[in-house]
Write a structure and sequence with these properties.
CATH topology: Leucine-rich repeat, LRR (right-handed beta-alpha superhelix)
Radius of gyration: 25 Å
Strand content: 15-25%
Number of helices: 3
Shape: elongated
Helix content: 10-25%
CATH class: Alpha Beta
Subcellular location: Membrane
Bound molecules: 2-acetamido-2-deoxy-beta-D-glucopyranose
CATH superfamily: Ribonuclease Inhibitor
Structural class: alpha/beta
Pfam families: LRR_1 (PF00560), LRR_8 (PF13855), LRRNT_2 (PF08263)
Largest sheet: 9 strands, mixed
Protein name: Leucine-rich repeat-containing N-terminal plant-type domain-containing protein
Keywords: ATP-binding, Leucine-rich repeat, Membrane, Nucleotide-binding, Repeat, Signal, Transmembrane, Transmembrane helix
Mean pLDDT: 88
Main location: membrane
Length: about 270
């Protein structure tokens, strides 16, 4: 050993550097991954007003990026409302394991909604209303924590997303003004007992309103206008004691507004 003093020094030296890099300056793998994911997300967007200028790889943490909220150093929210962003949502977003809220309404974002979003299993709020997304919606029914799902006013096509009936924690559901194939309102929407707001206007829906909808006792807004809903004006609507807004105009309903509704709901006289 005495013959090779440098060797005997090597081990502690290496240990020292290991200590410096991993203990004193933890490389914080999660932050690096999250920063990269956000920069890829930015890369797929056109940003004419430089709203994402603060999104730089020189930043230590993405928590200072405009529109980003963190909790304990992890990205929990992305909120970019009405920023004239176009382009597409990058699948890289799936790396954001703590994301609870993705809010990008009133932009010009187009293309397919990436199915990889299902990896963000903590999502509670997904609001993409007023964009230009098209293609079929991916099945997002594995996002069991969703409370707000607003995909209205885009160009989503294909089958009406009946899988929303599995998202039992939903409080607000907006699917209206899209380009689905003609179809019926799924019976399974009646599973969503916590729904207070449902917006299905202009969704190419035909057939009758399923009876299950009238078991949604928490419902405050029921908007199914501008479809091709037929049948008698549903008498059971008076079971919805918390309703304060009903929009059923431009459909193919017959019959009268039930008098019980007028009695139990002060608004019905209007
Ligand atoms: C979007 O932003 C523009 C300009 O910043 C503003 O004029 C417009 O009212 C906003 N629209 C919405 C829906 O907030
Ligand atoms: C999806 O989530 C798992 C953890 O649940 C993670 O290991 C994986 O890297 C994620 N996939 C992508 C594409 O981000
Ligand atoms: C949705 O729920 C139904 C039963 O209500 C079940 O058969 C189906 O597999 C579920 N779908 C998903 C994607 O979880
Ligand atoms: C519905 O809301 C109640 C009260 O906020 C909550 O306790 C319950 O877990 C919710 N149900 C689901 C399926 O999320
Ligand atoms: C989605 O965002 C828009 C714009 O901020 C808002 O008006 C709408 O109420 C949100 N949707 C839900 C269901 O909260
Ligand atoms: C509405 O649905 C009926 C069948 O229920 C169909 O005959 C009619 O053409 C549809 N109207 C529109 C405008 O799609
Ligand atoms: C209303 O429904 C009837 C019977 O299904 C159908 O013949 C008619 O075309 C529908 N009207 C419209 C405007 O879709």
């Amino acid at each position: 050993m005495a013959k090779y003093p440098p060797l005997s020094l090597q081990f502690p030296t290496a240990l020292f550097f290991f200590f410096v890099f991993c203990v004193i300056l933890p490389p914080s793998v999660s932050l690096t991954v999250e920063t990269q994911a956000l920069l890829k997300f930015k890369n797929q967007l056109q940003d004419p007003f430089n709203c994402l200028e603060s999104w730089k790889d020189s930043a230590d943490s993405p928590c200072q990026f405009a529109g980003i909220t963190c909790h304990e150093g992890r990205v929990t929210e992305i909120s970019l409302d009405n920023k004239s962003l176009s382009g597409q949502i990058s699948p890289s977003i799936s790396a954001l394991q703590s994301l609870t809220s993705l809010v990008l309404p009133s932009n010009l974002i187009s293309g397919k909604l990436p199915w990889q979003l299902t990896n963000c299993s903590n999502l509670k709020v997904l609001n993409l209303t007023g964009n230009k997304h098209d293609w079929n919606l991916p099945d997002l029914s594995s996002l069991r924590n969703l409370q707000i799902l607003d995909l209205s006013a885009n160009y989503f096509s294909g089958r009406f997303p009946a899988w929303v009936g599995n998202l039992s924690g939903l409080v607000g559901l907006g699917l209206g003004f899209n380009e689905y194939d003609e179809g019926e309102i799924p019976e399974s929407l009646g599973n969503l007992k916590n729904l207070t707001w449902i917006f299905l206007a202009g969704s190419h829906l035909r057939g009758e309103i399923p009876e299950s909808i009238f078991g949604l006792e928490a419902l405050e807004t029921l908007d199914i206008c501008r479809n091709n809903i037929s049948g008698m004006f549903p008498k059971s609507i008076s079971k919805l004691r918390n309703l304060n807004k009903i929009e059923l105009y431009v459909n193919n309903l017959t019959g009268e507004i039930p008098p019980e509704l007028a009695k139990s709901h002060p608004f019905a006289g209007n």
